[in-house]
Specification:
Chain B: Residues 1-22 form the signal peptide. The complex is a heterodimer of chains A (309) and B (431). With 309 residues, chain A is mostly helical. Chain A has helices at 3-9, 14-18, 26-51, 67-73, 77-112, 118-130, 133-144, 151-158, 170-198, 202-210, 215-243, 247-252, 264-273, 278-301, 305-308. Chain A folds into two domains: 3-51, no CATH class; 78-308, MetI-like (MetI-like fold, Orthogonal Bundle). The chains are: A mainly alpha (309), B alpha/beta (431).
């Protein structure tokens, strides 16, 4: 198709088009810019604006001030909350990534061997993923219930084992919460890893076999290097998702006992919706944004250069 | 062909008319005819036709049907709140400030001051007589009245906390903290898990426990609404009340799992399952236990006032629900007041056996003449409502955090109380 033919089909080129100039992209980009600006950028700008005020949900005009930043960032509980968030995020991301990868490897291997049950395995994992966070929290609350009729402890008693203080022991409760989050999020990692495994060129495995590589060597020298971009992208996604998780925690522990499981997102929620402090909540939201962006940049720095482009 | 087409058209027309004729007056989200010219949006709790208790649901359906029949030309759009009341109320407050609140709504009495402060409520004074307002218990009347003397909500039910016990295992009423500890240990010896109470991050944790502080004469806030619960005059009382719960857990009279209990349903479940013989609960649980247990089993259960540090230093927290109007249309405000009056002020109290806020209603309805309700009414005399101040939600939040730290042994009582007090004062300074 000639350039003249193309230009005759483009409505906004006009005189420029007749001189074979590149058409303006803005008419095509405007809908996207408008939607992004209205539904994504405007709320973010508003959060930044609120952070520089002393606005509450209780009324009043509010005034512009820097004191909210100083007040929020020097709160004594913030250090513990960031630490709890780190443990929760790190535990969840590592667990979801490792188990998701293991499940994907099992599924791909089983498919190659035409074994029965691969679809059931994938579907079962995906069911956990589609369960809403609040419902997931309630399910695990029933399982972790420490009453004599609680789910997991009843099982332990049947097996002759001592019951565990899943939610009342401050040293155990965080791992109970991480476990529930791994259960919920692993399916996503499995799907990403499964897709990436399917995209690996089979000739690489054939070459490795010709070189006499065993299964373990194929995993470490072929599979994992090939999965590296997918693993890093997956980790960016699940890290951000985990940092924003509060629904499952609020229904499982409410952040307690004390502040033992109060992550940053839940703290932000509590500050806005229980303390009615809109400005402080905005500062905490910016803090979460900074942490998410920082971690994303760290992960991205490990991406192969051609993948970054 | 033309005949059959006409017949089909006639049949379709007739069928189309049928649903309108047989339309239910009550659906899950509407009361009244769907084509009624006037509509009021009412955001409500489970105290309505969608109640999970079939008896109450049927009773409310009748009350709502009668109500809508008394107000022809109206329909009610029902919006249900979730169980997370704090979040629901905060969201509604924000909606009200933005001008998007429902016309009429259930407002929890403990957050009513926030709505009054925000100036989003419409006065209901013109729709209630002075005699009706005067019949309200003083703490209720103070709670619903604004600085301008107008009534901004109708507080229709109140509740209180009591100590339930299985008399087969704990025959005598524990009147003091020491009695309670002994009774808890006695129940553990009988194979139970000890005394249960809310102890997790939940409003009930703070509210159910506060009676222990109030009973000693402790005060949460001063007249200006500033937290004073751990100042020189109150700190000792506060710490004693916290140590009472701590001692229950550390002595084994209460299980450590109380720090995970954040629902009155959990307490009911343990009582019905027969794993506890003693728990701190609300008066409304009496009927729930009766509905859930075999009559023989229920006959073993009784309740008494919350114990105190001494038998004559006792108190209990009283709460309840109000109905408030947000609409800027006077017609809808009047309709909202009518809803509060005709459904909730009396009939709903009798239906659910929720304690009325008007002294005269205890004589009007036979259900409140029962021994149990007379005992509840007696306990109301030492009842205390949460302070109607803006800082209360944060005080409650800090008590919940403090309680978790203390009961799990993660912090010393003194240090945890001082942290909670400082955090409450900091939050007060930001309001």
């Amino acid at each position: 198709m000639s350039a003249r033919a193309v230009s005759s089909r483009l409505p906004f080129i006009g005189a420029a088009g007749r001189h074979n100039r590149v058409p303006s992209p803005y008419p095509w980009l405007m809908p996207v810019i408008l939607v992004m600006g209205l539904f994504y950028l405007y709320p973010v700008i508003d959060v930044f604006r609120y952070a520089f005020t002393d606005l509450t949900l209780l009324g009043g005009e509010g005034h512009y001030t820097l004191s909210t930043f100083a007040n929020v960032l020097t709160r004594p509980e913030l250090v513990q909350i960031v630490w709890v968030t780190f443990i929760f995020t790190a535990g969840s991301v590592v667990g979801q990534q490792l188990i998701g990868l293991a499940m994907a490897l099992v599924v791909v291997r089983a498919e190659k061997r035409h074994l029965f049950g691969t679809t059931i395995l994938r579907t079962t994992a995906l069911i956990a993923w589609v369960v809403p966070g609040i419902a997931g929290g309630i399910i695990w609350k029933m399982l972790f219930n420490e009453a004599p009729f609680g789910g997991l402890n009843s099982l332990l008693r049947v097996l002759g084992m001592a019951p565990v203080q899943w939610l009342s022991d401050p040293d155990v409760v965080m791992w109970s919460v991480v476990l529930s989050n791994i259960w919920r999020g692993t399916a996503f990692s499995m799907v990403v890893m499964y897709a990436a495994l399917k995209a690996i060129d089979p000739s690489l495995y054939e070459a490795a076999e010709v070189d006499g590589a065993n299964g373990r060597q194929k995993l470490f020298f072929v599979t994992l290097p090939q999965l590296r971009p997918a693993i890093l992208v997956n980790m960016i996604l699940i890290t951000i998702q985990t940092l924003n998780t509060f629904d499952a925690i609020i229904s499982l522990t409410g952040g307690g006992p004390g502040r033992a499981t109060e992550v940053l997102s839940l703290y932000t929620f509590n500050v806005v919706f229980r303390n009615y402090d809109l400005a402080a909540g905005s500062v905490l939201s910016i803090l979460m944004l900074v942490i998410s962006l920082g971690l994303a940049l760290v992960y991205a720095s490990f991406l192969p250069k051609d993948e970054k482009a | 062909m033309k005949k059959s087409l006409l017949a089909a058209l006639a049949a379709a027309t007739a069928l189309g008319c049928l649903p309108a004729a047989a339309e239910d007056l009550i659906t899950s989200d509407r009361v009244g005819p769907s084509d009624a010219p006037k509509k009021m949006v009412f955001r409500m709790t489970g105290d309505g036709p969608s109640s999970t208790d079939p008896t109450w649901a049927a009773g409310y359906s009748k009350l709502y049907t009668d109500f809508i029949n008394n107000h022809p030309g109206w329909q009610l759009e029902l919006q249900m709140m979730t169980g997370d009341i704090s979040q629901e109320q905060a969201r509604m407050l924000e909606q009200a400030k933005a001008g998007h609140a429902p016309d009429c709504a259930a407002v929890d009495s403990f957050v009513l001051p926030l709505f009054k402060q925000a100036g989003v409520l419409k006065s209901l004074s013109p729709y209630f007589t002075k005699e009706e307002i005067d019949q309200l218990f003083p703490f209720v009347r103070d709670g619903v009245t604004g600085k301008d003397g107008q009534v901004y909500a109708w507080w229709w039910s109140t509740d209180l906390r009591v100590l339930y016990r299985n008399t087969e295992i704990v025959p005598n009423e524990p009147a003091t903290w020491d009695d309670t500890k002994a009774a808890g240990l006695q129940s553990v010896e009988a194979g139970m898990e000890g005394i249960l109470f809310n102890g997790s991050r939940y409003e009930g944790t703070a509210f159910d426990w506060l009676g222990n502080f109030w009973g000693q004469g402790g005060k949460l806030v001063d007249d200006a609404g500033k937290p004073i619960f751990a100042d020189a005059a109150n700190r000792d009382k506060f710490i004693k009340a916290v140590n009472y719960y701590r001692d229950l857990v550390e002595s084994g009279a209460a299980p450590k799992r109380v720090t995970t209990i954040g629902s009155y349903d959990d307490l009911n479940a343990a009582a019905v399952a027969g794993t506890t013989a003693l728990f701190v609960g609300g008066n409304w649980q009496y009927r729930q236990l009766q509905n859930s247990m075999d009559p023989d089993e229920f006959a073993k259960w009784s309740f008494s006032m919350l114990p105190g540090i001494t038998a004559d230093q006792r108190s209990t927290g009283t709460g309840g629900w109000t109905v408030a109007a947000f609409s800027s249309e006077p017609e809808k405000v009047e309709m909202c007041a009518a809803l509060a009056r005709e459904i909730y002020m009396g009939p709903a109290n009798a239906l659910q056996e929720q304690l009325p806020t008007r002294a005269d209603l205890y004589d009007k309805y036979d259900v409140f003449k029962s021994e149990a309700n007379q005992t509840f009414a007696k306990a109301l005399k030492v009842g205390q409502a949460r302070p109607g101040v803006l800082i209360y939600p944060e005080i409650s939040n800090q008590i919940q955090i403090m309680m978790g730290k203390v009961l799990t042994g993660a912090a010393a009582t003194d240090a945890a109380v001082d942290d909670a007090y400082k955090a409450a004062l900091d939050a007060y300074a930001r309001l």
